[in-house]
Design brief:
The chain contains no helices and 16 strands. The protein is mostly beta strands. The strands form four sheets. Strands 1, 2, 3, 4 and 5 form a five-stranded antiparallel beta sheet that branches. Strands 6-7-8-9 form a four-stranded antiparallel beta sheet, with no helix packed on it. The protein has a four-stranded antiparallel beta sheet with strand order 10-11-12-13, with no helix packed on it. It is globular, with a radius of gyration of 18 Å.
C-alpha cells in the first residue's frame, strides 16, 4: 500500500473504503482507497515523535479524527492521550488541522498504560483506559469526549484495588458502556 517505511498505524472505513493513517519517521500521513487505487500520502501537521497506538475515525466530508498515546522525554516518558481533528484535501494531498488537544494530558506523576476509544455517534467518543498513579496504584478509568473536550473523567475500578495495566476491553451499545479489566482481589487477579 505504501512505498515508504511505516510505523504505528490505524484504519477506518469510509463508505466501505479503507482510510489509513500511519507514521513515517516523525510525520503522520493519511492515504485513502478509491475505486481500488490508493491515493498519494498527505502529511498531517502532527509531530509523531513520542506517539503510538493511533485510533482513526471518519466524520465524513474528508474530516478525520485521530486519538493517540503521547509522551516526551521532558515528562520521563509518562504517557497521556492526545486528539487531532483534520480535513483532507484530496485534490492537493494536503491537510488542515481543525483541533489539536490533549484528552488525558501527560503528567509526571501519572502514566496511561493502555486505552480504547469507542463510538456509536459521529464525533462522540467513549474512552476507557488504565492508568498508573506513581503515588498509589494502577486504576481503570472512563471519559466521554466530544468537540468540546473531555467530560466525566472518572476512576471506575475500586479505590483500593490495583488493576492489571494491560488487560482492558469494553463495548458500547445504545450509549451504555461496559468496561472490563483485571483487578487483584484477595491476592489473585479477577476479571471485573
Amino acid at each position: 500500500i505504501t512505498s515508504e517505511a511505516t510505523g504505528n498505524y490505524a484504519l477506518a472505513l469510509e463508505q466501505g473504503a479503507p482510510v489509513v493513517v500511519y507514521q513515517n519517521s516523525a510525520q503522520l500521513n493519511i492515504i485513502k482507497q478509491s475505486g481500488g487505487n490508493w491515493s498519494l500520502p498527505a502529511g498531517v501537521n502532527l509531530t509523531t515523535s513520542g506517539t503510538r497506538e493511533f485510533n482513526l475515525f471518519s466524520r465524513g466530508q474528508n474530516v478525520y479524527e485521530v486519538f493517540y498515546m503521547q509522551s516526551s522525554a521532558a515528562l520521563n516518558w509518562r504517557w497521556g492521550i492526545g486528539f487531532t481533528s483534520f480535513h483532507l484535501d484530496d485534490t492537493n494531498h494536503t491537510t488542515a488541522i481543525l483541533q489539536n488537544r490533549p484528552v488525558i494530558p501527560s503528567v509526571s506523576t501519572q502514566d496511561v498504560r493502555t486505552y480504547k476509544v469507542m463510538s456509536e455517534t459521529s464525533g462522540q467518543y467513549h474512552i476507557i483506559y488504565t492508568k498508573y498513579n506513581i503515588n498509589s496504584n494502577f486504576f481503570a478509568g472512563y471519559m466521554f469526549f466530544d468537540a468540546n473536550g473531555g467530560h466525566f473523567n472518572a476512576q471506575v475500578s475500586p479505590l483500593l484495588s490495583s488493576v492489571d495495566e494491560f488487560v482492558l476491553f469494553g463495548s458500547v451499545r445504545n450509549n451504555i458502556v461496559t468496561e472490563y479489566f483485571s483487578s487483584y482481589v484477595n491476592g489473585a487477579a479477577r476479571l471485573q
